[in-house]
Design goal:
17 strands; alpha/beta; 5-stranded parallel β-sheet
């Protein structure tokens, strides 16, 4: 298991490294950084299994890193901070856990144990390449393409056209369907489904949101930008994703946007 630590306090990095070695010797620290800039550069070169991320850095917030890197969603984020007021925002940014400094070794142990258990659980589910094969198979057999979604209750085949939008929820993904109020929770990261559904009219508009353009009702540039979906959900559009979305919308209309 590989880990990266981003913290602007050298003592904090050294302390966490020491605690990780004592708790779980098999964790390999593949890199450290002390700022938003150096953290982004590091994560563009290396992808860990776990990212230990301080929230207040010398040149910005840890959240800024997650909104800038393309590999977000391929690793678990454990925020480490001395300030508890960022907890809600941290979990909105897909935090796996939130540890207050000074980090309690028992809390760190529980976090690592949860990660190990989740990894073991995922091994019992359908591999993502098998889900992709099922999509291809059902596309040939039926009138409409379907996606296989594996849950603890079984594997469900859902029409891709019925998916309104998909939302990252930590290390899980929530699916929202046409005509169904309750979402379906899948133990997979959003990026797995983005790669499968990109050819079916799905676009990433935010690090936490993947939308079906066929269910897009409107785009509004005010307040940072957001989209209205057919189920009346208002979803944010990130600055980095805005230009791509507008380009797609331009290609879908005869009039300039």
């Amino acid at each position: 298991m590989r880990a990266i630590i981003i913290d602007d306090e050298k003592n904090a990095i050294a302390s966490l490294e020491m605690e990780l070695k004592e708790i779980t010797p098999e964790i390999e620290i593949i890199g450290t950084a002390d700022s938003v800039k150096s953290g982004i550069e590091l994560l563009k070169k290396k992808t860990p299994n776990i990212l230990f991320l301080d929230i207040q850095l010398k040149d910005g917030l840890g959240f800024d890193i997650l909104e800038d890197i393309a590999s977000f969603g391929e690793f678990r984020v454990v925020f480490t901070t001395a300030y508890d007021q960022y907890a809600v925002n941290a979990f909105k940014h897909g935090a796996f856990d939130y540890l207050l400094k000074p980090i309690d070794p028992d809390d760190l142990q529980l976090t690592i144990d949860r990660i190990i258990k989740m990894d073991a659980l995922k091994k019992t589910e359908f591999p993502i390449d098998q889900l992709d094969q099922i999509i291809q198979l059902t596309s040939k057999i039926g009138q409409e393409a379907k996606i296989a979604l594996s849950t603890t209750e079984g594997v469900f085949l859902k029409k891709i056209a019925s998916i309104i939008h998909i939302q990252a929820d930590g290390n899980y993904t929530k699916f929202y369907f046409e005509g169904i109020k309750k979402s379906m929770l899948i133990s997979r990261i959003l990026k797995d489904f983005e790669s499968i559904l990109k050819d079916y009219g799905f676009v990433r508009v935010h690090f936490s949101h993947l939308i079906n353009l066929n269910h897009l009702e409107s785009y509004h540039p005010k307040d940072g930008g957001h989209v209205m979906m057919s189920n009346k959900s208002l979803l944010p559009v990130s600055v980095r994703k805005k230009s791509n979305l507008l380009e797609i919308l331009r290609n879908r209309t005869q009039f300039p946007i």
